[in-house]
Amino acid sequence: MGELFRSEEMTLAQLFLQSEAAYCCVSELGELGKVQFRDLNPDVNVFQRKFVNEVRRCEEMDRKLRFVEKEIKKASIPILDTGENPEVPFPRDMIDLEANFEKIENELKEINTNQEALKRNFLELTELKYILRKTQQFFDEMADPDLLEESSSLLEPSEIGRGAPLRLGFVAGVINRERIPTFERMLWRVCRGNVFLRQAEIENPLEDPVTSDSVHKSVFIIFFQGDQLKNRVKKICEGFRASLYPCPETPQERKEMAAGVNTRIDDLQMVLNQTEDHRQRVLQAAAKTIRVWFIKVRKMKAIYHTLNLCNIDVTQKCLIAEVWCPVADLDSIQFALRRGTEHSGSTVPSILNRMQTNQTPPTYNKTNKFTYGFQNLVDAYGISTYREINPAPYTIITFPFLFAVMFGDFGHGILMTLFAVWMVIRESRILSQKTDNELFNMVFSGRYIILLMGAFSIYTGLIYNDCFSKALNIFGSSWSVRPMFTSPKANWTEDLLRHVPVLQLDPDVNGVFNGPYPFGIDPIWSIATNKLTFLNSYKMKMSVVVGIIHMLFGVTLSLLNHIYFKKPLNIYLGFIPEMIFMASLFGYLVILVLYKWCAYDAATSKSAPSLLIHFINMFLFNYTDKSLPMLYSGQKGLQCFLVVCAILCVPWMLVVKPFILRHQYLRRKHLGTHNFGGIRVGNGPTEEDAEIIQHDQLSMHSEEGEEPAVEEVFNFGDVVVHQAIHTIEYCLGCISNTASYLRLWALSLAHAQLSEVLWTMVMHLGLNVKNLGGGILLVFVFAAFSTLTIAILLIMEGLSAFLHALRLHWVEFQNKFFGGTGFKFLPFSFETIREGRFDD
Question: What is the CA radius of gyration of the chain?
Fold first, then answer.
């Protein structure tokens, strides 16, 4: 279980791969996914590396597959995903793959070109068919004498007077419907009103041969006289991208042409159907295997890209690679290398050699489907420093609990738990569907977080006795009211209850209070007028108790880091004074809260002193106010002692450590090597050993509490400033972080009040109507209540509580022990390719 609480132990290893076996070995390592390759050629341009040509060939194959995939999606053909994980093709198989992809691409391009040409011809014939049909209607209408009179007005008056014959030319064509108004205005202005335009809409939309979009068009016919107007009209039609078609003048010719056009359209439609069927067959065959092709090509590309990170031996027979890998997985890595060597047919085994290095290894925290979400919460703030305590295992419990403190509602917790249970039960089916909805994928990846948040919310909801803002009377109230008491304080009659709307129970009356409620808060508080006052005090103290315990736990975890990294100075000069400082002040406050809850009962609760005043007086050493009774005997002496201890911890953390580090540095410096006349004096190390020690200590300078070996590295002023910042930050942080935990109190009250308002303003309306109409109204009211509950109380309030709980962990909890200066272990793995996330 050690790897769960601390990152995996990593090592730097050197791989010697034979040239003929390197491809298969890297392939096996990619399937294993346990090694992170280092770039041994950082100064070499990517275009000058050995396997750049193979990478380009893989990219070209990937481009062709993307083209085929685009055509498949355009045809709305589903891509078959069987979840198959194909083996990586051998390098010699690349030629066959290239030839196959080239054939499919060329065939599709040829089909698309032919289909586009056929569609263009089909569009032209269709437009011509509509032109012949519409122009015949135009000419039939022109037979009307009034229209002929209108057309003859296009001639000049002088020509009419001379009795010139009426000879009008015309052009017919098709134009996009939305361009008709502008087209008509342009004709009128350019031709000065000397043309006659008729247009009619084509009822059925036509298909664009290039984009396959539906386009609405109109047929037009323009009458004019003279070649000058004819040229103007044609130029305007060309500018508006109108298609002009020849149209015979006589009805007989138009009828014959229409018959020929219809015949050609029928023949062309048959050819188009056959072409589309052939295209569908090609795409359906490709859709069955395109995912497997994608995986193969991108695996090959990843392998060649990784081989470009390796060094080439001078003999050109060996590739040298450096990898980070977990120590626990060295055996499986060596087995993968042997398996890759066997697949390649090589007789020379690949060698794995562990290296000694001063470089900081990457951080690798093993996860499963349950811990994955919690680890992501931690990593979103910062990657753990190598081998330091991993906060994720503790977050599994503390995060849902802090969320539930703010979200505590039994009913809302059940709804959230049911939603998470649904995702957990159907997780295999949801994973197989691979939806592209990013929001749902994010929620689904945190399904176990939501499950625990819901379960903890059910628990805190029972503690608060809150279910959709209503109390559950499970055990019966511990308060009881009798019709008549001997005590004058409790002489409640029916007449009194009828005329006085608000009554207050006195806990100091026998028979009224029967002891504490067995579990949670007494349901009688749900009808009390001072309910908010009681919950305000209760939840505020609870938030302080939970927060301080959480922070003390974080400081305790820092001790485990100091012990593991063997830093005794940080234990004696860091952890111990930090723990004393926090426990003396804020730990004592927790004890006071718990003591007051236990020491005062219903009879003595009115005389209970204020903890806030006591805590303030503790800092001010103010004990002169005799009206404020002490909580216990000896309180003054103990509190003075605790404050003095806390004050002494400040110079303990601030001053002692820098001087001890300086003393250790000077001591190591004087124990160094001194040469006098070639004779080594003293028991210090030799010059060679001193060089090694100096190099090691320089590399360890980043570790807190370690003194550098040379004067240029050790700077006493910097150490003092760093320690002063750390001390001030910790001392002030104890106060500000404790106040920050009061958000547990604020959000818990806000959630409860919002839930109560929603019930009063929505659900209460339907419950107040006592007749049949009220039952019908209740159906709609409950639907509105359910919608608002899910949208506001579950989603919005849940997200708010989630973010606040996240902040408490990142800032208030993790800053006590978490460095977060590491970098993530990113192994070379084919897993992302198998899952379909090709672009990661």
Answer: 42
Class level of CATH domain 1-40+312-360: alpha beta
User: What are the backbone angles phi and psi of residue 723, rounded to the nearest 5°?
Assistant: -70, -35
pLDDT digits (tens, 9 = 90+) for 94-108: 999 999 999 999 999
Domains 1-40+312-360 and 135-263 share a fold: yes
Amino acid at 602: A
Compute the residue count for the chain.
Answer: 840
Nearest alpha-carbon partner for 36 in 336, 352, 296, 364: 364
Question: Is 0.85 surpassed by the pTM of this model?
Answer: no
Q: For residue range 716-739, what is the model confidence (pLDDT) as tens digits?
A: 889 999 999 999 999 999 999 999
Q: CA-to-CA distance for 402 and 413, rounded, in angstroms?
A: 14
Place of tokens 């068009």: 217
Dihedral pair phi/psi, residue 674, rounded to 5°: -125, 120
Secondary structure class of 275 (helix, strand, coil)? helix
**Which class in CATH covers the domain with range 135-263?**
alpha beta
Dist CA 382 CA 366 (whole Å):
16
- Helix, strand, or coil (residue 36): strand
Collapsing DSSP to helix, strand or coil, 543 comes out as: helix
What pLDDT does residue 149 have?
A: 40
Q: Which residues of 235-270 are buried (b: 16+ CB within 10 A; e: fewer)?
A: ebbeebebbbbebeeeeeebeebbeebeeebeebee
What tokens were used for 662? 């300086």
Using the CB atoms, write b or e for 527-538: b if 16+ within 10 Å.
ebeebeeebeeb
The number of angstroms, rounded, from the C-alpha of 164 to the middle of its chain's C-alpha atoms is 82
Band (pLDDT 50/70/90 cuts) for residue 140 is confident
List of residues 6+ apart from 418 with CB closer than 8 A: 454
Show me where the domains of the chain are located: 1-40+312-360, 135-263, 550-739
What the block records as the tokens of 405 is 């403190």
For residue range 301-349, list pLDDT tens digits in order.
999 999 999 998 777 688 999 999 999 999 999 999 999 999 988 888 8
